[in-house]
């Protein structure tokens, strides 16, 4: 079980209600964002995995694609990726 499983819905609702009644617009905005994404946030704390590695790999491939606009074929593009992967490992 995650670290934040002891939080009850009522605790979170009290905090959200306070933030909305505070009258401070930046705090209200954060409360609305947290309300929209609360289930995803709590899921992350229960199962702490992310897609950061996949995003990083995709970013490197996109960088290769923009640098090497002279690929004539998919095979050339693929070889460019494999050639660049030497430095990733």
From TrEMBL:
Domain spans labelled Transposase IS204/IS1001/IS1096/IS1165 DDE: 17-79
Pfam families noted in UniProt: DDE_Tnp_ISL3
Source taxon at top rank: Bacteria
Listed name of the protein: Transposase
